[in-house]
Write a structure and sequence with these properties.
2 copies of one chain form a homodimer.
Chain A (H helix, E strand, L loop, with lengths): L1 E5 L23 E2 L5 E2 L1 H12 L4 E7 L3 H8 L4 E5 L5 H15 L7 E6 L2 E3 L1 H16 L4 E6 L9 E5 L5 E8 L4 H9 L3 E10 H11 L5 H6 L9 H4 L7 E6 L3 E3 L3 H6 L5 E2 L2 E3 L7 E4 L5 E4 L4 E6 L2 E6 L7 H6 L6 E4 L2 E9 L2 E8 L7 E3 L4 E8 L2 E5 L2 E5 L4 E4 L5 E5 L3 E8 L9 E3 L3
Parallel strand pairs in A: 1-4, 1-6, 4-5, 8-12, 14-16, 15-17, 16-18
Antiparallel strand pairs in A: 2-3, 6-11, 7-13, 8-11, 9-10, 9-11, 10-12, 18-19, 20-21, 21-22, 22-29, 23-30, 24-27, 24-29, 25-26, 25-28
Chain lengths: ~425, ~425
């Protein structure tokens, strides 16, 4: 099975765990089989591999997520990187070209496209296989998954099928309706449109060539920023006559708010948390190193990360966005392909961060124009290159780096260091990268 | 007026703002006249100085609080330091000897002794002056303040006066009663015993010499650890016949729990806090550098510090202690006489802290047996001494200190540095102090 997972943009609705660079799908909140915690993207990836060990998984996403994906899924996973955001039609066209031109998959094969973030069980992946098998048959150009509605939601689009069978031709689509209209649609047998569909690669390649002047993947990638923003629904789905829908009645939850996310948590507390016996329906996610004590609360979600602390009534938590938009602070932690960093202290003219490099990884070779840096290695072993000079480093070693000086560090074991940045204009934008000499 | 403020031990009832080394009286939570925040000890000190600019204020306390007191009140304030804890009679005897022998106050003068932590208004200090004036008269050896009860509290002892006048002879004392007994006492005209009283210095000096074999302050200090633990109430108050009580009907609140403390807060939020309009009776105290967002909460207190995060229903917050007792983590921040420190990162074999030295102050000259340290100066200017070698330091300077090496830093301006401690056995107890050569 070929699967393209659409990994969407940054979201603030799960602040302080999601931020401008960490989307909700990277929050480690779900209990894995081995007892550790995994993120949505890790959970879905492991579910796919369980359903089909040979599945080719490609993640279609923006540049900012590449590091986090490699960090969480390893280096083998395929990533179709959008050089900039251009809505779903260009993204799916690019991922399709990536599968044929880069991965060398036969254009007659089918692929399933689905969002990375719904919370689903194993039966969902069986349904994806059926979707791909149905697309293989060629009865239709597009086969959508239609999710059996559990309530008259105003958040989803609806698919009205022509008949009530497992697989049916699509009669029509309905935009996000009012609750009353949704009830009426459901009476007519409507299904939720979860944005999950299968097609033969050739079909979307042809559509792409109709709408965009390009030769192959490399060419499409190169001119990506010139493409018109257009959704796959608008460009393809709504215009297609040969289109079917397959019913899916299993669990399918959109975990877009703290209220829905906590419903999917197996345990009420993640991290260092104490709760007294008078707490009812309280969920706490603590990513800090210090304890949270919760007492006498009802229907509350608490979440703490290096970005901040949320304490909210669960219902109210859906109104978080305008408040989070007001927060103007620098990114306090991030996962990178080489490891992670966390801001420890912010002063006007200094910034102290903790850097963790994974074994075998290194930073880019780079310099800063306006700041000096001091590294103190606190664990592990590795090698630094400073202005071309290579040197071994280990615990306790101090490396001072003047502004303008090129530097990198390569971790032999997992390596941690404290970096003190010093200067009047400390900014993430002050960075020039160089090839290693 | 001579005042002795009894500054009691560490309390965990206001965790995470109070901890093993920061007592509740040092939490900066009250709005001062200039808009800044002040602690209980700062508030009461400023109130005393406003009521009587020439008041001699002495704080009777244990060793662990000396740094915080100097940091919050400056170097001029008198401190009678108990070398170890020996209950209130030895503490008051020591403070009394301190006033006569160190401060040179005439033993015929009177002094008012009161706890540092009740929340009071200016009329309280007028009442203290009246108490001292009454003691000056010599009608009684001890003059107690009797606080008009506002409810039949089970938390306080009661004083039964012989008559209902402003000043009366004490008939008898009652221990903390049940609510029913308290109601009965109040019907009989009983007053709360807030532990506030005045006496002529000579009176307590004589009592001390009766019970303890000592010559003067220095001698009493030297043998302090051999003294029997005994309360002032038991040793003196309950045995005294010539004892009066003066009524006080002003505000007098014991802010011992989060519930009572928040009642005294003028604003609902201290620190970086956002609250939406659906929050009712919510108080937030945030000592961290990142925001707290509270939504849809009722009757809740939230408090965050480098030690941890409390989110509690206000009523429930009085049951905090057993939970906090379970927390076994190192001290994450502290005020010292020379400034303050805060732990930024804890690893098995390293510890990173931020040190702030006040201008003109320095650390002790000291060494560590089992750890190396690296200092990176991030702001200010000063001088280091490392194994006798003195050197000027400024922003960006790095000082590496091997285990065994003696070191200190003196701040010329306010000076901040990041200290990385490295070693297998990092402990606050690994410290040897030396005189500066």
């Amino acid at each position: 099975m070929n699967i393209v997972l659409l990994s969407g943009g940054s979201g603030k609705r799960l602040w302080p765990l999601s931020n401008d660079i960490r989307s909700k799908q990277f929050i480690k909140i779900f209990k894995a089989e081995d007892g550790s915690y995994e993120s949505m993207v890790q959970r879905v990836y492991h579910q796919i591999k369980k359903a089909d060990a040979n599945a080719t998984v490609t993640i279609a996403t923006g540049k900012t997520q590449v590091s986090a994906i490699h960090n969480q899924l390893g280096e083998e996973v395929g990533i179709s990187v959008e050089p900039c955001r251009r809505d779903t039609f260009p993204a799916i066209a690019l991922a399709t070209a990536y599968l044929t031109d880069i991965k060398g998959i036969n254009p007659e094969e089918s692929v399933v496209v689905c969002p990375v973030d719904p919370y689903v069980e194993d039966d969902y992946f069986d349904a994806l296989k059926e979707l791909a098998a149905q697309a293989d048959k060629g009865e239709a150009n597009l086969v959508l998954m239609g999710i059996e509605p559990t309530y008259p939601s105003e958040k989803y689009g609806y698919i009205i099928p022509e008949s009530s069978g497992k697989t049916a031709r699509v009669s029509t689509f309905k935009e996000k309706p009012t609750a009353a209209a949704a009830e009426e649609y459901i009476r007519q047998g409507a299904l939720w449109n979860g944005g999950v569909f299968a097609y033969k690669l050739k079909y979307v390649l042809d559509k792409a060539h109709e709408l965009i002047d390009f030769t192959d993947y490399q060419d499409l990638y190169a001119k990506y920023d010139t493409l018109t923003r257009i959704s796959f629904d608008y460009a393809v789905v709504e215009k297609e006559d040969k289109i079917q829908v397959m019913r899916f009645a299993g669990q399918w939850k959109d975990l877009g708010t703290w209220n829905t996310l906590t419903e999917a948590m197996v345990e009420n507390a993640v991290g260092d948390v104490m709760m007294n016996e008078t707490c009812k329906n309280v969920h706490v996610v603590n990513e800090l190193d210090v304890p949270i004590l919760a007492m006498g609360l009802h229907d509350v979600v608490i979440s703490a990360s290096p970005e901040g602390i949320l304490v909210s009534d669960k219902e109210q938590s859906s109104y978080i966005k305008p408040f989070v938009d007001k927060i103007d602070q620098q990114i306090m932690f991030a996962e990178k392909s080489w490891g992670s960093f966390r801001v420890l202290d912010v002063e006007d003219e200094s910034l102290t961060i903790k850097v963790t490099l994974n074994a075998g990884h290194s930073m880019n070779y780079h310099s800063h124009k306006y700041r000096d840096e001091v590294w103190v290695v606190t664990s592990g072993e590795g090698r630094t290159v400073v202005d071309g000079m290579e040197q071994e480093v280990r615990v306790g070693d101090v490396v001072t780096i003047q502004a303008g000086c090129r530097h990198t560090i390569m971790a032999e074991t997992e390596l941690k260091l404290i970096e003190v940045q010093l200067g009047r204009e400390i900014s993430v934008h002050d960075k020039q990268k160089f090839p290693l000499e």
